[in-house]
Write a structure and sequence with these properties.
Bound molecules: zinc ion
Low-confidence stretches: none
Helix content: 40-55%
Oligomer: single chain
CATH topology: Sufe protein. Chain: A
Structural class: alpha+beta
Mean pLDDT: 93
Number of domains: 1
Largest sheet: 4 strands, mixed
């Protein structure tokens, strides 16, 4: 676990310092606001879904703790180019990962997102890590505002 925890720290620091896809989108098809009152994290998510349900572009702006920002950054990198259905599957797996319900040996599609496994040891941080995913889900479902509370 030590290596994974070190990797986790590095990834969080890197994505917090240089968040990917951190800007507004000019022509989104879906947007949603996400709030995590417990920590004070907030973000606005922009999604552009194209033909065949492919997420052609996704971006975010907002403020919050390092984990929420890094998780949002990595979420956008992960789902860009995937279909809405694939994004839903990833959200389900990610949620199981951060709540400690995913068997690490089981097959999954998380790839680099697996570094967030460490979050399951810190229950207060689970909502920080999953805020962007909940907000993506809301945006795709047509929900304007998503709160983790
Ligand atoms: Zn937070």
């Amino acid at each position: 676990m030590t290596n994974l925890n070190e990797l986790y720290q590095q990834v969080i620091l890197d994505h917090n310092r240089k968040p990917r896809n951190y800007h507004e989108l000019e022509d989104p098809t879906n947007t949603a606001q996400g709030y995590n009152p417990l920590c004070g994290d907030q973000l606005k998510l922009y999604v552009k879904v194209g033909e065949g349900g492919v997420i052609e572009d996704v971006s975010f702006v907002g403020s919050g703790c390092a984990i929420s920002k890094a998780a949002a950054s990595m979420m956008t990198v992960t789902v860009k180019g995937k279909t809405v259905e694939e994004a839903r599957l990833l959200f389900a797996e990610f949620h199981k990962l951060v709540t400690g319900e995913l068997d690490p040996g089981a097959e999954n599609h998380l790839g680099k997102l697996k570094v967030f496994a460490g979050v399951s040891e810190f229950p207060a941080r689970v909502k920080c890590a999953s805020l962007a995913w909940h907000t993506l889900h809301g945006a795709l479902e047509g929900t304007d505002t998503v709160s983790t509370e």
